[in-house]
Design brief:
This protein is elongated. The chain is built from 3 helices and 7 strands; from the N terminus they run αβαββββββα. The protein has a single domain, classed as TATA-Binding Protein (2-Layer Sandwich), CATH 3.30.310. With about 150 residues, it is of the alpha+beta class.
């Protein structure tokens, strides 16, 4: 009986590293934020919209009066299992200290359909965190456009 407990403990010790990154539910994801930018919400929204459209994101929700912009999903299918993905960007803007702050959230989902991964209609999308690199790149582009410290002399 005692050896069964040792065996169970050994199995759990081996499985622990495999399950440490798993979470139950989606929970809040980390977005990237700009410092306060000396520009209006309307100016930053217009620039963000243009920037995202140039990168192939279809803008679905554009609400300058609420400081919110959301794109549709930009999809990249793959013939390999769980390598197809789709992403969308949401930008939240608010005033702070007489300036505007932008929070960028780039959500990512992967296709969990192994039978027909190249058919978007059959895709089984599951949450896969955020695209931190995309978030950081968009924040950097906003800073380069609106932050005086980043402007060229």
């Amino acid at each position: 009986m005692r050896s069964g407990g040792i065996f169970r403990a050994a199995i759990l010790a081996l499985l622990a590293p495999l399950t440490s990154g798993l979470t139950c539910g989606e929970g809040p994801q980390a977005s990237a934020e700009t410092p306060p930018l000396p520009a209006s919400i309307e100016d930053i929204m217009a620039y963000s919209r243009s920037l995202l459209e140039k990168q192939g994101f279809p803008v679905e929700s554009f609400l300058p009066e609420k400081g919110f912009l959301s794109t549709g999903w930009k999809t990249q299918l793959s013939p390999r299992y769980q390598e197809g993905l789709r992403e969308r960007v949401q930008i939240y803007l608010w005033e702070k200290e007489g300036a505007t702050v932008a929070a960028v959230d780039a959500q990512r989902e992967i296709n969990d359909n192994y039978r027909s991964p190249l058919r978007e209609a059959d895709a089984d999308w599951i949450r896969s965190g955020n695209n931190r690199a995309l978030q950081d790149r968009l924040v950097l582009l906003l800073k380069m456009e609106f932050d005086p410290q980043w402007k060229k002399n």
